[in-house]
Amino acid sequence: xxxxxxxxKGFGLKAQIRDLLQTDYHSRVVDALRERGHRLEVxxxxxxxxxxxxxxxxVDRAVDLAYETRKHFPDKTIYLTNEIxxxxxVNKRLVELGVRFLGADGWxxxxxxxxxxxxxxxxxxxxxxxxELKAKGxxxxxxxxGSVMNVWRRVRQYAKDGLTSLIHGKYAHEExxxxxxxxxxxxxxxxxxxxxxxxxxxxDVIQGAAGALAPEAFVExxxxxxxxxxxxxxxxxxxxxxxxxxxxxxxxxxxxxMVERAMTARWGDEVGVRFRSFDTICSATQDRQDAMLALGQxxxxxxxxxxxxxNSSNTINLAALGGTFAPSFHIDGPDEIxxxxxxxxxxxxxxxxxxxxxxxxxxxxxxxxxxxASTPNRTVGEVIERICEVRGLDLGAIVPGAxxxxxxxxx
Length: 411
Ligand code: SF4
What we know:
Layout: E1 6-7, H1 14-25, H2 28-35, E2 39-42, E3 45-49, H3 57-72, E4 78-80, H4 88-96, E5 99-101, E6 117-120, H5 127-136, E7 139-142, H6 146-160, E8 164-168, H7 174-185, E9 190-193, H8 196-207, H9 215-221, H10 232-235, E10 239-243, H11 249-267, H12 271-274, E11 275-277, H13 283-297, E12 303-307, H14 313-322, E13 328-331, E14 342-345, E15 354-357, E16 365-371, H15 377-390
Parallel strand pairs: 1-7, 3-16, 4-5, 4-6, 6-7, 8-9, 8-10, 10-11, 12-13, 12-16
Antiparallel strand pairs: 2-3, 14-15
The structure holds iron/sulfur cluster (SF4).
């Protein structure tokens, strides 16, 4: 019999939460764009929306589960371990529905009792955090995405087979921390590399290249991004490559190729038993990156607006891709657009937002649009509405009913 304190499949309340989800996340403007082949002309502004954008299957499921949990336990204290997904609107909405954040000031389960409910996010938690929560005896609602668990399976197998997991990801990202913990929990080691430059440092050590970092320097360089006791002389002799599901897929593939070449140069025919690789970019991330490329390749874009949380890895990568075609503005919502002249945005490759002037050219303009996997359609629609508003255009004449719906309560 399944443990009633560990829930992964919901509470059978989809029909009861449908209207609320529709109000919170749906957009008539986005529907209108879809009906018109992802293009919409409003006055002298043409919007072109990527074919794949916004909520992915993993986020859809996580949000559904969170709403079902609130509905199923109207009187219980419900916690989220941290952001359920990297989107400020969704997290704020959950707080409005009475869900509290456990990790607001760093990880602490001190307030959790056996009477409470804790929701685990789409990117999962570490094995140590899960053990700690299970020991509390509370109900756990696990929204970890199946694509993330697929990476965990790969990493566990690497550990069992004596391979170090070389993970292309950001070591501070919740998903990568959770993935790395799976290697540790199964007796393995890990090394997290953020980009090709960091992967090259590992490749130099593997090949014994002139100029490779000395072991002590290597350990210091990757102190926060490697397993305890990591020794590059030992733990880079057998390597399995995996990646955070939301990285730039071209970079993940390039890194896998670099490591394979380095292992082949070092070990020759033994590479077959010393090296393994699986592309663990999730299909939703891949589809959104492909759609961004296709949108850019249509040509004629004057600028691209990429919508999503500033800490959303897949959105950051979409903004970087977009920036190869036209000026790319990563914003987390409509309020970042101050006027037709001023916008707050996070430039591709930068950390943190800046205020930029002159972002929206006068006269006829073609605006490309996409959104990260954790961005609701509602936010995409509101950004389009805001652009029309600052340009003095009447979107309502083209899309009747455009406008922000008021949030409902979960009755
Ligand atoms: S981006 Fe991919 S891995 Fe992350 S929640 Fe969505 S489908 Fe799952």
